[in-house]
From TrEMBL:
Keyword Iron in annotation: no
Protein name according to UniProt: Histone-lysine N-methyltransferase SMYD3
Single GO MF descriptor: zinc ion binding
Naturally occurring in which organism (per UniProt): Trichonephila clavata (Joro spider)
A Gene Ontology term for the protein's cellular component: nucleus
Lineage: Eukaryota, Metazoa, Ecdysozoa, Arthropoda, Chelicerata
Length: 421
């Protein structure tokens, strides 16, 4: 066995500490994050919820660290406050070296994680933010549990650098946040060869292509949203991780050119180019307005109407892998699903498939989930043949990205079996 084969599991990591998103409290289990209609409250703090005795028992190891503080808190803590407090309480109780996870011969504990604490202390703005957080945490778990600023910066930095948003692919939602020791060994690339997927709160890293050597230094995951221009990706990476990415996408202009591609025919190209620059500026401004409408929960029909108008304009001037085109389509696709305009959702969704394949690669979680979604809509409201085609493609991809044991992959296989009956 030399390298990793596409689809092979590289690491399965359980969270070191994690917290359910504040808005999901009472809707999902605080231990396993599954949705449940019959959740039971913790009998002591009455704040966190569990599916049943089983989840409560399994979750107690972590929850016991915070339960009494939650019980006594005047203002109940947000998920982010709970996470950093859990980390501090856990380090205080077990030290920096315990527990640990071994990944390919490397021993990972909270103490081995990168913190960039010096950068946090050096940067006025992040230092001020940190002091505010320290005060808040001190009010919650008491000053005796909060170390001095230097040590706090270590823990806070480790959490910031190694924290993951825990997503539920079924709903495409971020449901919580956590720190994972085993997953922290991997470096970043904007063109990663491994994919991070969650099943409940457990994190799985799988090879999305063949990787020639079984070597940590050859495995790359993406820390950020890949669907951004190079300068945006660079500044996201610099802000949180303090490094400059040197991957192929950051050092060549191929992807940026595609992301900014506009349609011009040969004749009078110069004149058109000038013209199109103005139009492009307008496209960007309108997209910003659209995003604002989504953020401010404008009425779905007004968002839909604006999307249609923009898509009609953009269709004439933007390349079909242009990033503004993609971003507008994503909004249109989601809003049509919410409005139950299934046929429109299918047509917007179909336009996203090829750009996703291009930017995320043929075996990516994004593409697999996208095709699964489209397939389901097709099945109930579109063409059964197209449904089957999309779901089969999704199955092929998710076998690699999610693995055969993942609940979502199993749902997909069941659905395919039903259709084939
Ligand atoms: Zn549960
Ligand atoms: Zn409790
Ligand atoms: Zn890069």
């Amino acid at each position: 066995m030399t390298g990793y084969q596409r689809g092979e599991l590289i690491v399965c990591s359980k969270p070191y500490a994690y917290a359910l998103g504040t808005e999901y409290r009472g809707l999902r289990c605080d231990h396993c994050f599954k949705k449940c209609n019959d959740l039971k409250r913790c009998s002591q703090c009455s704040f966190v919820y569990f599916c049943d005795k089983n989840c409560q028992t399994r979750g107690w190891g972590l929850h016991k660290l915070e339960c009494k503080y939650i019980m006594n808190a005047k203002q109940k803590p947000l998920a982010s406050t709970r996470l950093i407090s859990l980390v501090l309480l856990k380090v205080k109780k077990y030290g920096l070296d315990n527990p640990f996870e071994e990944v390919l011969g490397r021993k990972m504990s909270f103490g081995t994680l990168m913190s960039h604490s010096k950068n946090i202390i050096k940067d006025k703005k992040s230092y001020q933010l940190m002091l505010i957080l320290m005060r808040e945490i001190s009010n919650y778990i008491g000053p005796a549990n909060v170390p001095d600023p230097e040590e706090f910066a270590e823990a806070y930095g480790r959490m910031r650098v190694n924290g993951f948003s825990i997503t539920d692919d079924n709903d495409s939602e971020v449901v919580g946040c956590g720190v994972y020791l085993g997953a922290a060994v991997f470096d970043h690339s904007c063109e990663p060869n491994a994919e991070v997927v969650f099943d409940g709160v457990n994190l799985y890293v799988r090879a999305k292509q063949d990787i020639p050597q079984r070597d940590i230094n050859q495995v790359f995951v993406s820390y950020i949203n890949q669907l951004q221009l190079t300068h945006s990706r660079q500044s996201a990476l610099k802000e949180l991780y303090y490094f400059r990415c040197q991957c192929i996408r950051c050092t060549t202009s191929l992807y940026d050119d595609k992301m900014l591609e506009v349609l011009i025919d040969g004749k009078e190209a110069e004149e058109q180019l000038k013209n199109i620059k103005e139009k492009l500026q307008n496209v960007k401004e309108q997209l910003k307005k659209l995003e604002k409408m989504v953020d401010q929960h404008a009425s779905l029909s007004s968002i839909e109407e604006k999307c249609r108008k923009e898509i009609e304009i953009q269709d004439q001037i933007l390349g079909k892998k242009n990033i503004y085109w993609i971003q507008t389509l994503v909004i249109a696709f989601n809003v049509c699903i919410k409005l139950k305009k299934w046929i429109d959702a299918i047509s917007f969704g179909n336009l996203l498939t090829e750009p996703y394949r291009f930017y995320y690669g043929p075996y990516s979680r994004h593409l697999g989930i996208h095709l699964f979604k489209i397939g389901k809509i097709q099945l109930y409201y579109g063409s059964p043949t197209d449904a089957k085609d999309a779901l089969k493609q999704a199955e092929n991809i998710m076998k690699v990205t999610h693995g055969e044991q993942h609940f979502l992959y199993q749902d997909l296989v069941k659905l395919l079996a039903e259709i084939q009956k």
